Amino acid sequence: MPLGSRNGYDVEAIRQDFPILATTMHGRPLVYLDNAGSTQKPKAVIDELSRFYSNDYANIHRGVYDLSMRASEAHEAARRTVQRFINAVDSREVIFTRNGTEGMNLVAQSYVRPRAKPGDKVVVSRMEHHANIVPWQILGQQVGLELVVVEITEAGELDLDDLERKIDDRTLLVSLPWVSNVLGTVNPVERLVEMAHAKGVPLLLDACQAVQHLPVDVQAVGCDFLVFSGHKVYGPSGIGILWGKAELLDAMPPYQGGGDMIASVSFDGTTFNELPYKFEAGTPFIEGAAALAKAIDYVTALGLDAIHAHEDELLAYGTRALKQIKGLRLIGEAPHKSSVLSFVMEGIHPHDIGTLVDLDGVAIRTGHHCAQPLIEHLGLPATARASLGLYNTTHDLDALVVSLQRVVDKLG
Amino acid sequence: MAEATIQDEERAIEEEFALFDEWRDKIDYVMDLGRNLKPFPAASRTEANKVHGCQSQVWMVAHVDPRTGRLHLDADSDAILVKGLIGLLMRLYDDRPPAEIVATPPTVFDRVGLGRHLTPGRANGLHAMIRRVRELAAAQA
């Protein structure tokens, strides 16, 4: 039985929901393996954007007229969908942002900055995306915050002993990725929460590479903040989520000033200047929230457990297949991995790999993946990365392998 | 015979690329140029000579010869495709009077379909390299 048709997970039927997967690149069927970069959109998401503009669009929280209230209701319904998706206690804890990066910056400026004295610390790790490095460095310039980096092991896992050592009484926040975008390592998030909380420090989880691959339950995990971006979970780009515990968010000052976040006369009963609105200055990506809800409905209907199982099988298949290629070395072989196959090839630059496989219709990412400190730590100029999504198949991985074999024949 | 100008060289490159219908063949051709790029001194692969691009490393050395007044260009990359793009750039700008470089922004990359490799900020540092050469030329022209 082909991979992915077991247990009712019919990947061929799923692929029909994603119009772009039927297109070509350089005359070849598109083999899309850059899902850690961004994911493609199901028809339900594409249609919702069009439907929303056609039927329900108006500015929110502004008008007493039916259309505006409908749009506002849709926005709040989307917030509740996100709340259920991550099992937050209250939808007030769900803040719409532009992307995961904005969530990080919001926590940096509204949670850490008001507390920070020179020499206070935020603890991150060697495997960070730039979004979990630069906001803290900016605080370094603004208030003298120190950025502390936890090392990783040879296998690409967090060095938990090092983490233990580095959380101290000057640590204001521990901020770590759930899943590494370069190595695919799935970090032991419950353990990380335990370790941070044992020292009275809150933990932010960067879930940008997690929410689309595995079930996320913020209450079960026990973290204090969590960010993710809509476009990586099959939703629109330009919308992201910051979730935080209400008592933390309530005590934080606003991030940006503007409309909708200030106390103001209200006709429609919307409470201003309270959670979540105090963090949502200006007109948000209203239709994006509605479409994100459709994306969440879509992955929820398939089931994150089923998606996870499918992608895990593909990951194992891809790992075996790539290892057969002469001179190819996988980067990141943690025992607990998700959906990412980073690699280098002897004597061939990743940029050339990416350029050549593109000609065969295969889309992979090459470069430093916005994680320069990690790539440098690994002693590499760059890597090539194939990353999996819920619609990928063994055929996609076979196409990648055939194409990489051609690269070896040409340049190896 | 008068010396070929940058524009002559651009026309020549355009004619070479006109031989290829397929994008694949154009890429092959650029990679061939990359393989044949003249050797770059290892000692010049320094941080100071690095041109920052996202995907691959690029090193460039450019100077104006005080005797001839002409700009000399040497560059290298660890990616063959980028070396090929460098090869094309050197055909345009190496051993040229700075005033001619300043007067002739490169248009051939767009005309042969390689313009997307010049996207600022993302692709491969070629954009930054062109800017650096042209700035240096402008300072000397």
Topology, element by element:
The complex is a heterodimer of chains A (412) and B (141).
Chain A: H1 11-16, E1 24-25, E2 28-29, E3 31-32, H2 43-56, H3 66-86, E4 94-97, H4 100-115, E5 121-125, H5 134-143, E6 146-150, H6 160-166, E7 171-177, H7 189-198, E8 203-206, H8 218-221, E9 225-229, E10 240-244, H9 246-251, H10 286-302, H11 304-323, E11 328-331, E12 340-345, H12 350-359, E13 362-363, E14 365-367, H13 372-377, E15 383-387, H14 394-411
Parallel strand pairs in A: 3-13, 5-6, 5-7, 7-8, 8-9
Antiparallel strand pairs in A: 1-2, 4-10, 9-10, 11-12, 12-15, 14-15
Helix pairs in contact in A: 2-10, 3-10, 4-5, 10-11, 11-14
Chain B: H1 6-18, H2 23-35, E1 50-51, E2 58-64, E3 71-77, H3 80-93, H4 98-103, H5 108-111, H6 126-140
Antiparallel strand pairs in B: 1-2, 2-3
Helix pairs in contact in B: 1-3, 2-3
Placed side by side, the strands forming the largest sheet of chain A appear as 4-10-9-8-7-5-6
Shape of chain B: globular
Run of helices and strands of chain A: HEEEHHEHEHEHEHEHEEHHHEEHEEHEH
- Share of residues in helices of chain B: 40-55%
Number of strands of chain A: 15
- Named CATH topology of chain B: Sufe protein. Chain: A
Tally the helices of chain B: 6
Please tell me how large the radius of gyration of chain B is. Answer: 15 Å
Order of adjacent strands in the largest pleated sheet of chain B? 1-2-3
Radius of gyration of chain A, rounded? 22 Å
Spatial separation of the terminal alpha carbons of chain A: 35 Å
- Counted beta strands of chain B: 3
**Sequence stretches where pLDDT stays below 50 over 5 or more residues of chain B:** none
CATH class of the largest domain in chain A: Alpha Beta
* Largest sheet report of chain A: 7 strands, mixed
What is the straight-line distance between the termini of chain B?
25 Å
Content-based structural category of chain A: alpha/beta
What is the CATH-assigned architecture of chain B? Alpha-Beta Complex
Backbone shape of chain A = globular
- What are the low-pLDDT stretches of chain A, counting only 5+ consecutive residues below 50? none
CATH topology of the largest domain in chain A: Aspartate Aminotransferase, domain 2
